[in-house]
Amino acid sequence: MVVNIFMKKILVIPSAQFRKHTTSAVLAIALFIVVYFLMVISAIAILCLCVLGAIALVSFHFNFALLMLALGLVSLGVLIVLFLFKFLFKSYKVDRSHLVELDLNSQPILKEILEDIIGQVGTQFPRRVYLSNEVNASVFYDSNLLSMIFPTRKNLTIGMGLVNTLSVEEFKAVLAHEFGHFSQSSMKVGSYVYYVNELIYNLLYENDSYESLASKWAGISGYFSLFVGLAFKVAQGAQWVLKGMYSLVNKNFMALSREMEFHADEIAAYVTGGEPLANSFHKFSPASLALQDVFNYYDNEIPFNRIPQNIYNNHRFVMEFLFSQKSLEYIPVSSELMIKDQWASHPTDEDRIERLMSLHIPTVEGSAISARTCFVDIVNLEVELTSHLLSSCKFTGEAEFISQDEFEEKFTQNYFKYSYPQIFNGYYDYRNPTARLKSFDLQKMKVLPIENLFSGEAVNWVNQKIMAQSDLEILNHIETGRYQIKTFDFRGKRFKKSQVRSVIDQLEDKISKLTKIVEDHDQEIFQYFLKKELELQNPTLLEGYYKDLEEVSKEQEENSKLIKELNVRLEFTSYNTPFIKIQSNFREIKKDEGILKEKIRKLLLDKRFEDVYTIELKEIFEQYVSKEWTYFENESYLQNNLNLLLNSLDGFSSLQDIYGFQIKKGMLLYMESLETGKKNHRQELEIE
Fold first, then answer.
1. In the chain, what are the domain boundaries?
2. Is 196 exposed, middle or buried (0-12, 13-18, 19+ CB in 10 A)?
3. Which of 25, 266, 358, 440 is the right S-S partner for 256, CB 3.0 to 4.6 Å?
4. DSSP sequence for 446-466
5. DSSP secondary structure of 66-118
6. pLDDT tens digits, residue range 205-248?
């Protein structure tokens, strides 16, 4: 609700929900402080009792045994107190290595925009403004204990990927949203939560130094080991309490954080109108994916000392290119299942857009040109940020810049190399062609035109089925108790956990109907291309393609089960596990590992894979199958041997995906050639 716009200053009164969640978050932090204070008082009391007990023991009868017991008793109290205060000995340093500070005196246009927004919102100018490579903007405090006591000016981070993506007005709306956070006194709650989390995390997980110290003390004498064991038990009890406090504090703060986002959105809407900010939400995800595609491209080039001079030129090209590949008939499919994520720091984009539009605030007429125009000498800034981004990379020789023309050419080639022919309109992107192979009277058979076979409606059937299967998996987890929730929404109605079976039945019925529709449609596609083969008087290859793909799919499914099973069984290597359990776990995976080795041996002899794996991967496979490897010895992992196992497993998994993709794409290229009349290279080889 807006009270008034006075002196161009916007005042948005926080909603009742905002105030409620602020109160809940503050109370949760206060409760943690009380609980932690009581734990400290109890620890000090235990220490005092231990000291008094030790004095009593020595006073009763002085001898070596009682002296050692007295020292052990004192160490019990000391270790308990030390456990609760050990976080004070850790140094906290905010990592800003990925940021570049911006001098606003050299950026008059941006500075003017910031001053205009600040004047309307009525808040402070940021202490510092930074550039990052992200498709995002954010606000943060200088994280130190003083910021919890005294007012601290906030810092603003602007992602260059964001600047690449938005228009001037959309960019201004996003900045107004961030300055909306500047005006929120409740942001200080975030500082408290940050330090509460650091404290709890330290007490729960950062115990190596503490355990090492305690173990060394226990190793001095058997008299001490009993008391060290007792101290560990007390620490475990404290950790159990702290886990509950972590959940309470963070759930309440996340609820507040979501309300803070809505509140900042509303402030932004009164600066630019709701539409520019809503439009920006639609652009964030595609722009982030495009930037990740650029990073992935250079992951393969940097090992060869080939780097970009301006990665943001690349980013702009990829965004435009990917947009050009989108089907105009694409129909977005949304989940029918809605579950409130208590741990989400931001509302969903859909919820934010809906809230913005409900405000009915007219959009201020503004510039639709690129936000890059807000920066002076933007190209040099992009080059500087690119150089900063690459500063942590290690090169084996002199680095060489990849030109923009070369990047565009190679990226386009890679895109089409790893994508399916466009005539299928994405129908096969997430599934394989299937058919019921039987005899047809091709002369009398009537077929649909290809425009109908791969229409937006047909693709929508597939996407609906995929989304429904995803929803069904979540509902099954709710039913089995893997997801602990009390209520959920389905098709706009609220359901209790006890009603989940009825919703599962509805979804299973929908999936069954969609499966029938898609299978029948697949059959029509199969018949269409069979008839094309006949009309062109081509050799009858299509049925063979379908059979090959079906066999490969069955083989992949079997291999996927083995890969998943081994990955699950090997999870223990990534966290602390007792030595006896480690040895037992490795014995248990021997049978599955034997199956993996046998499959890799067959793969090395299979000529189908010769062009799929690299020389390096072949060497890894050959080394892995050459003998039986030991992975744990003398209470320590043999890391090189373990890496060989993990690399072989990952390589085997990757090869399944690559080979399956090649078989499927070869089939689709053949089908495309039947439609276009143009033979592809693989087809020509098979005809010969």
1. 436-537, 550-686
2. buried
3. 25
4. ----HHHHTSHHHHHHHHHHH
5. HHHHHHHHHHHHHHHHHHHHGGGGS------TT-EE--GGG-HHHHHHHHHHH
6. 777 778 888 888 888 877 788 888 888 889 889 889 988 888 88
